[in-house]
Specification:
globular; Rossmann fold; 228 residues; 7-stranded mixed β-sheet
C-alpha cells in the first residue's frame, strides 16, 4: 500500500506544483506566514519538521517565518519539485524522501512538527503519531491540519487539475485505509492521548480563522499537541 500511495502522489506532483505556485500571489500566503510567526513565538527553539511537504509550499513559508526547516515526503517527484521551488525562491530547506511512519531522525530533535492534509492518507496513523512524538523535544509541539475524508467521495469537479484516473485511484486508496473507518478528529485525539502527549487541543475552525474565512466555509480541523 505504501508504494501505491507514493505512486499516486508522484502522479499528482505536477498539478500540485501549479496550484501552489498560484497560491504565492494570493493573500493566504501572507496569512499563513503570520500564523507561523505566532507559533514560533510559543516555542523555545526554531527547528521544525514538516511531514508530507508535497511541493514545499508550507516549508518555504516556515523558513520565511524564521524556522530552520526540515521537510519530508513519501513521493520522490514531490521532493524534486519542492527542491526546485526553494532554489528558485533562494530559501534554505532540507528535503528528504521519507515515510512518515518511519522518520529517520534522532529522538528529541525538533521543536515543532507540522503537517497538513497528510494524515488522512497514512496506512498506520498510530505509528505515524508515535514517530512524530519521538522526534519532538520535550515541550515540543505537534500541529496537524486535516479533515475527516473517510466518508467523502472525491470527485473530478473539485479537482480539475488531476491527471486521468487519479480521482478513482485516490478514492480506492482512501477506502482501504484504516483511518477512513473512524470519526475524525475524535480518533486522532484518542491516539495522541494514548501515545502520551501531555496536552491535546482541537480547533475545528482554525484554518478559517487563519485565512480570515467565514466560519460557515468548509475548512480543516487543527490538532495541537505538546510532548511531555
Amino acid at each position: 500500500m505504501i508504494e501505491r500511495i507514493a505512486t499516486y502522489w508522484d502522479g499528482r506532483s505536477a498539478s500540485w506544483l501549479k496550484e501552489r505556485e498560484e497560491a504565492w500571489s494570493r493573500p493566504e500566503t501572507e496569512r499563513w506566514l503570520e500564523f507561523f510567526k505566532s507559533v514560533r513565538n510559543k516555542l523555545s527553539g526554531t527547528k521544525v519538521l514538516e511531514v508530507g511537504t508535497a511541493t514545499g509550499y508550507f516549508a518555504n513559508i516556515l523558513n520565511l517565518a524564521g524556522f530552520e526547516v526540515t521537510a519530508v515526503d513519501l513521493s520522490p517527484q514531490m521532493i524534486n519539485s519542492a527542491k526546485q521551488v526553494s532554489q528558485d525562491l533562494q530559501l534554505n530547506v532540507d528535503y528528504s524522501i521519507m515515510d512518515a511512519q518511519h522518520l529517520q531522525f534522532e529522538d528529541n530533535t525538533f521543536d515543532l512538527v507540522f503537517t497538513r492534509l497528510m494524515t488522512w492518507t497514512i496506512p498506520d496513523l498510530e505509528k505515524c503519531y508515535r514517530e512524530m512524538e519521538r522526534v519532538l523535544k520535550p515541550g515540543g509541539r505537534l500541529i496537524n491540519l486535516d479533515a475527516d475524508f473517510g466518508k467523502i467521495i472525491f470527485s473530478a469537479d473539485r479537482h480539475d487539475q488531476c491527471p486521468s484516473g487519479a480521482i478513482e485511484e485516490v478514492n480506492e486508496i482512501k477506502s482501504a485505509l484504516e483511518i477512513s473507518q473512524h470519526e475524525r478528529p475524535a480518533k486522532d485525539i484518542d491516539l495522541l492521548q494514548t501515545i502520551g502527549f501531555g496536552s491535546v487541543e482541537i480547533d475545528v475552525y482554525a484554518q478559517n480563522r487563519i485565512l480570515e474565512l467565514p466560519l460557515t466555509t468548509e475548512g480543516l480541523f487543527m490538532l495541537e499537541a505538546i510532548k511531555k
